[in-house]
Amino acid sequence: MHRLALVLALGIACCGAASSASAQATLKTVQARGHVLCGVSQGLPGFSAPNDKGQWSGLDVDFCRALAAAIFNDPAKVTFVPLSAKDRFTALQSGDIEVLARNSTWTLSRDTALGLDFPAITFYDGQGFMVRKSLKVSSALELTGASICTQTGTTTELNAADYFHAHNMTYEMVAFATNDEAIKTYDTGENGRCDAFTTDIAGLSAERLKLANPDDHVVLPEVISKEPLGPAVRHGDAQWADIVRWTHFAMITAEELGVSAATVDTMLKSPNPEVRRLLGTEGNAGEQLGLTKDWVVRIVKRVGNYGEVFERNVGKDSPLGIARGQNALWTKGGLQYAPPIR
Mind listing the domains of the chain with CATH numbers? Predict the structure, then answer.
């Protein structure tokens, strides 16, 4: 009996070790293929959207390019896979993509029941409402009885239900399979189906650009939810989750230490120990992730630090014109904070 128990224990241990080794295969798979498979939206300006030549740009797109730069020293070694809200998590679970960078909210059920991990928050947001100025509404509290349009398969439906219930207001939710259907119906005013459109505040700024007459619409002041947005990966591969997590933290730290695309070469000579650890001239942070010593140099030189990525895609001088706000560094009153690289 003792021998049988020992054999069974060894068998279980071996199976567990094999399962663990199998789970840690994402980086090797990506390296063998030669590019990262990155799930993105089907077109959300500022975050992930293709131009008429099929070239992708946006904050989420640049995050995927940063991953490719860290791994391959080439931000172009990423394939963008456009996904609907309904299909995005299934694509990640099934292995069709390695990382989902599609303005997705980190929630408990997604983190647990869906078997996913959310390594970082790349954009802090919250849900709001957009209406036509002709409706003469200045607050979401005036939307009782309104028809609200949105995309199905997102957190917006439940958030809206909670908000209207909490304020004893009635409403009708009109959900569409795609965001383009929802915003088009709202814009055309088809059969009066949409008095308002709801999604994350940054999304409202992006979708407003698609309207026939953007200046005829206004985003109401209320923010009704917390929407921590960031990349998701499959649960079970700690190394890959670490690479995704620390890519974001590296970009945050680079901004904090003044390391930018323009200064990174000069900063390689810095005597500052924090800068030296970040850029790999001291320590072995890159090797601990399974990458090279200069992984952060690759990211910053070819994609930029977090502030550079934010400003060119969604910042105040971009078409979206979003202020840093909660997405400012912690040293400037924001929530973007990276643990130390040491």
Answer: 126-227 (3.40.190.10)
